[in-house]
Amino acid sequence: MQNEFLQRLSIFKKNRLAMAAFFVAVLLIILSVAAPLISPYDPIETDLLNKLKPGFWAGNWDNLLGTDNLGRDVLSRILYGGAISLRVGYMVIAVTAIFGTLLGLVSAYYGGLADIIIMRFMDVLLSFPPLLLALAIAASLGAGLENAMFAISLVYIPQMARVVRGSVLKVKTNSFIEASKALGSGNIWIMVRHILPNIFPAALVFLTLLLADAILYTASLGFLGVGIKPSTPEWGAMLSTGKEYLLMGQWWVTVFPGLMIVFAVLSFNLVGDGLREAFDSKLKR
Amino acid sequence: MGLLRYLIKRIVLMIPTIIGVTIIVFLLVHFIPGDPVDVMLGEKATEAARQALTERLGLDQPMYLQYWNWLTHALKGDFGISVQSRIPVTEAILERLPATIELTLTATIIATLIGIIVGVSAACHHNSKYDHMLVTFSLVGVSIPIFWLGIMLIFLFAAVLGWLPVSGRIPMGSGIDEVTGFYLIDTLLQGDFELFLESVRYLILPALSLATIPLSQIVRVTRSSMLDVLSEDYVRTARAKGLPNKAIIYKHALKNALIPVVTVIGLQMGKLLAGAILTETVFSWPGTGRLLIQAISNRDYPMVQGIVFILAFAFIIVNIIVDMLYAKLDPRITFE
Predict the structure, then answer these.
(1) Domain edge (last residue) among B74, B104, B136
(2) Percent of chain A with pLDDT over 70
(3) Is it the case that residue A95 has pLDDT exceeding 90?
(4) Poorest-confidence range of A264-273, B122-131, B320-329?
(5) Domain of A144: which CATH number?
(6) What's the average model confidence in pLDDT over B280-285?
(7) Domain limits for position A212
(8) pTM: predicted TM-score of the whole model, two decimal places
(9) Which residues have C-beta within 8 Å of that of residue A275, sequence separation ≥ 6?
(10) Is A123 on the interface with B (CB under 8 A)?
(11) Fewer CB within 10 Å, N- or C-terminus of chain A?
């Protein structure tokens, strides 16, 4: 198991594009975590005398990426925005991983009525277009990052539950499960010790690809002004305020947060794709 | 199993799902922290207005009765009256629906046509510079937030170049006789070609930005599925027979390569509906998505419930249609 995992990782390491994306992703994570230390200014402090100033291309070395309509430093807001997007992303992953795994595992392992009830409920959640469900729930719960995070998780829990259920059904048929039962192992023991480690690769790939999606959804909610307060230095929300000034030629308020979303989503997508290729391919022994 | 029996089976299976959807949509009002009436009317509302709204929404009744009342009305197509504009929710939605359908259908057609052509040509020039460029483009395409792309398109084509209108749909007063509500069709029915071109000009940018993500996916899938098919024995046989390249690609290979493409188009429909909400907001396109966002910011919950239900319902129907189309294309699939 350990050995196979390392072998898979070495396949991943040979994928140059995925490795490059991996380093970009790590860089973004470091920048976001270090945002409070490296940001030149406070991301929400307004400075109306300094509003909509262009950045370094106009020789402004105080605000490298310019300032927005309230005189807030775009660079600082982008850095803090990264922290917010990633925080929501990780929380979505954690919540999805816990509930998705639990529901998928119980559903597949016990089968019968539990399976029917859980999966039918998941089907209901899946019958909403994804953004619509997050939007509706976030709108009802009101503004707040936790609410946005919860709303986005609801989109992914059913998908995760399906992935886990599928892999558990496959693992369940193995004879070592039967053997463990014959030795008198309890259900919980079998699930934790024998089944969970075997579904780990499938879950890992799903969760990596989910991070990119979660960042995109967070930005979408921020852009639509649902679930995230407009003053929050969130990439999508920044874009939304910058939109009005773009037509007047103040492009930097919109362009930079947008580029950050593209970088983040692209790099996490490429890492996820690379992992999927590595874990889906047959190992050459 | 025949197509008709399959359809009936799908519709029967749809019923519990629809009931589940209605429960969630109904509960949206009850997810609101605090008193929903306060949230909808604001703090300054009079006691009489509060009382009236409470009664109208039935909030003074037990939960199961509330649900039952809401459900029986909803199934008749009655989602109540908008708290904000005081017109029936269904009427407001039906008025906006053609704009959304026109936008999403145009985007789907653009994405499908261009996606298949580009995907096929990438596969035919496998590993060339052209192929690598297209693969990179489609990778970036799935990672670009469409609202940002939309804003950038507006900036370039409307603000800088001035070729296309900034936002909106062709204005009401421009002389369109609304028959179908689809302006592209209405203007043609009228025989007014100039007006048709004008409505196309308004449609181009929103449809293009909405098409980007499905387009990128369709290119990726068409390309890889064509590559699989092109290495099949029957393609080699066709080549050996000396058939012209075009005939091999379009008659033999493409037909089989299309099966996974249809699946992807189906999977993209949900994203298209969701994307329409973002695109309509960026371009002030007067469709249901924009209506939803306005309703959310006005805290007009009957309206929110109505739109969410209609869009989810549309999504379920589209999925059934795609499944049937899929089975029709691939004779190996039996209806079960």
Answers:
(1) B74
(2) 97
(3) yes
(4) B320-329
(5) 1.10.3720.10
(6) 90
(7) 2-44+54-284
(8) 0.85
(9) A12, A18, A204, A205, A208
(10) yes
(11) C
Name the domain boundary from B30, B46, B74: B74
CATH of the domain at B102: 1.10.3720.10
Report how many domains make up chain A: 1
Q: How far apart are CA A99 and CA B292, in angstroms?
A: 29
Rounded CA gap, A215 and A260, in Å? 11
Nearest Cα residue in chain A from B157? A247
Closest CA to B219 of B247, B261, B186, B172: B261
- DSSP reduced 3-state for A73: strand
Most confident of A126-140, A224-238, B43-57: A126-140
Which of B25, B28, B143 is closest, CB to CB, to A269?
Answer: B143
**Complex ipTM over 0.85:** no
A34 in a structural domain? yes
* % of chain B with per-residue pLDDT over 70: 96
Residue A49 lies in a domain: no
Nearest neighbour of A226 by CB, restricted to B275, B296, B301: B296
Q: Residue B196 — very low, low, confident or very high, per pLDDT cuts 50/70/90? A: confident
How far apart, in Å, are the Cα atoms of A44 and each of A221, A242, A254?
Answer: 19, 15, 17
- Chain B residues 205-234 with a CB less than 8 Å from chain A: none
Those residues whose C-beta lies under 8 Å from the C-beta of residue A202, and which sit 6 or more positions away, are A163, A164, A166, A167, A279
Looking at per-residue pLDDT, the higher value among A221 and A174 belongs to A221
For A58, counting Cβ atoms within 10 Å of its Cβ (0-12 exposed, 13-18 middle, 19+ buried), the class is: exposed
Residue B295, classed as helix, strand or coil, is helix
With respect to residue B85, please indicate whether it lies within any of the assigned structural domains: no
**What is the domain count for chain B?**
2
Q: Is A139 on the interface with B (CB under 8 A)?
A: yes
The pLDDT, as a whole number, for residue B186 is 76
> Which member of A123, A226, A262 has the closest CB to residue B17?
A123
Q: How far apart are CA A146 and CA A91, in angstroms?
A: 9
Which residues contact residue B162 at a Cβ distance below 8 angstroms, ignoring those fewer than 6 apart? none
Domain that holds residue B69: 2-74
Above 90 in pLDDT, residue B39?
A: no
Residue A187 touches chain B, beta carbons under 8 Å? no
Q: Is A144 on the interface with B (CB under 8 A)?
A: no
Same domain, B63 and B109: no
Same domain, B239 and B180: yes
Distance CA B77, CA B202 (A): 31
Phi (first) and psi of residue B124, to 5 degrees? -70, -25
pLDDT at residue B174 in the model: 67
- With bands split at pLDDT 50, 70 and 90, how would you rate the model's confidence at A64? confident
Instruction: Supply the pLDDT for residue B1.
Output: 57
Q: What does the pLDDT read at residue A284?
A: 44
Q: Which of residues 315-334 of B touch A (CB under 8 A)?
A: 315-316, 319
Give the whole-angstrom CA distance, residue B36 versus residue B50.
10
